């Protein structure tokens, strides 16, 4: 695990309780604007409030994630993470974190956890990465308080509870796993346009002013920690979005000024952008694309289904993993919907194949008409004639092959 040493939190500045929260948040937003071009004002509000909320982690039920993503390099995502590092509470930054190291880092300070910062997250979770299910599970579990992981300690012959609750930010190219983005304020960075200028950031020179601002912010937040923990702000969004925005809006309400209204506007706009732009989960997207690939066929051999899925230009299956979607991965994704391949007798002979009848219930539940063309539009491949299919005397496969 490649990490940078967490910043030591200084004593609360004298008079911290009397700081103007609104002024402090204004200074955070101005600091961000000095070094980074954010997509819009709502993004600036969201990041500013997230930074402030990291200093009140002991008060929250939910530890909001911050996802900083970009379509290409040189969009400012790593620079933004640097500024977040300079202003957040007890930041623990890494570009290659092992789950065991993260568990230990949180567990050692469970009552006042560090802020996890993961750069180059696309190398772990991106479309061409193998994925780290342990780390993703840790990040998902750590969103909610009192959701520990259990591990057996052979040396002490006992089961241990490992803390997972901590604020976390991830930066990378492309989307993060949907289970992470669903728990996150998502900031979509873009390259600077001609004429857009920012100041260069050098930690030796610029780090000290950020440290001072961080100390003032920490003092103000910690002086009001009890009030933040008891806050029940009115929320402009619902369900999971309300969970992740509650800490940020509680900070905004405490700060006052223009921040309460700006926070609620940002919640609505950024949540709407996420819902409008986020891709369907891999499983749901796959269901829709399978419906397109089937056309009118009653069954498709596994190899044919894979071939058609990979040929869909607007879908990710040709590049899903190092070698594209594999039979094993196809089976694993569909198994979540109780769909498995069988040995079927087709006009072309017996083969491992998927039956249309096994998809029907999942299509009715998850592939509504407004899911887009990939979920139910016109088939992108020629339809196959209907076939009468028979099970070849074997039970559905639940193993690694399809």
Automatic annotation (TrEMBL):
<protein>
    <recommendedName>
        <fullName>DUF3631 domain-containing protein</fullName>
    </recommendedName>
</protein>
<dbReference type="InterPro" id="IPR022081">
    <property type="entry name" value="DUF3631"/>
</dbReference>
<feature type="domain" description="DUF3631">
    <location>
        <begin position="188"/>
        <end position="366"/>
    </location>
</feature>
<feature type="compositionally biased region" description="Polar residues">
    <location>
        <begin position="380"/>
        <end position="394"/>
    </location>
</feature>
<feature type="region of interest" description="Disordered">
    <location>
        <begin position="369"/>
        <end position="402"/>
    </location>
</feature>
<feature type="region of interest" description="Disordered">
    <location>
        <begin position="1"/>
        <end position="21"/>
    </location>
</feature>
<dbReference type="Pfam" id="PF12307">
    <property type="entry name" value="DUF3631"/>
</dbReference>
